[in-house]
Amino acid sequence: MRPYILLYVTDVARSQAWYERLGFAPHRQGRHGTWAELLWTGSEGEGFLLYLHGNPEARPAGFALPGFEVTGPLEDVAARLAPLSCGETPAIVDEGFGRTLNLRDPDGYEWQLVEHEPELYV
Description:
Residues 1-116 form the VOC domain. The longest helix is centred in the first third of the chain and has 10 residues, at 12-21. The protein contains 2 helices and 8 strands, in the order βαββββαβββ. It is mainly beta.
């Protein structure tokens, strides 16, 4: 799995330009300009993803959703985490870029797992 942060932004292009100036590189783009993925590659060659999701409504300052990009089926990850889920059975949701699964840790922090489907991109 590879970690990422999902930011809800009001203008994807503007935010993408800003993060590119910080050193993030374009990785994948959504078809309709409402989604961009940027990649930070550190000195050790490890990658970190930043997802920018367009939302016309302003979000509270500091709103972000941490998560992981998974390389296998979400069902496998959900089964592995089931003993820790406190009785919850999280739903897998179809998105415009693949599928997601949102989980809460024992303290209530929400994490998103994403399974990409590259054919849904431009």
